[in-house]
Write a structure and sequence with these properties.
Largest sheet: 2 strands, antiparallel
Shape: globular
Number of domains: 1
Number of helices: 4
Structural class: alpha+beta
Radius of gyration: 16 Å
């Protein structure tokens, strides 16, 4: 029964993401480019998440003991930045350490 609730919560988050995307896309005139070079004005959550499936974040330990997270430039595209903003996600969330993110929120 608990696993069923976990699945329901996951589906709720999935549908809320899709709803937010579609509401934000309704305010724009330019469609978003999805994997497979498709343009869409009402993307599904699955196709949206495919945009980020190949993104790699490199973990770079520093000499002072801190860890630096780096996104290679080939993934830092205007289209991915736009997609993240449509979902209500700050793009810097991918590279800033968690303790810095909490201070900025």
């Amino acid at each position: 029964m608990a696993l069923g609730y976990v699945f329901l919560i996951g589906l709720l988050i999935y549908s809320l993401l899709e709803r937010r995307l579609r509401q934000n896309m309704a305010r724009e005139t330019k469609p978003i480019r999805l994997p497979g070079n498709r343009l869409s004005k009402s993307p599904t959550a699955a196709s949206f998440m495919q945009l980020f499936s190949d993104v790699v974040i490199l973990i770079n330990p520093q000499t002072d003991g801190t860890v630096r997270r780096v996104m290679p430039r080939r993934f830092d595209t205007p289209e991915l930045r736009r997609a993240a903003s449509l979902a209500g996600i700050e793009f810097t969330r991918f590279t800033l350490p968690p303790e810095v993110q909490h201070c900025n929120s």
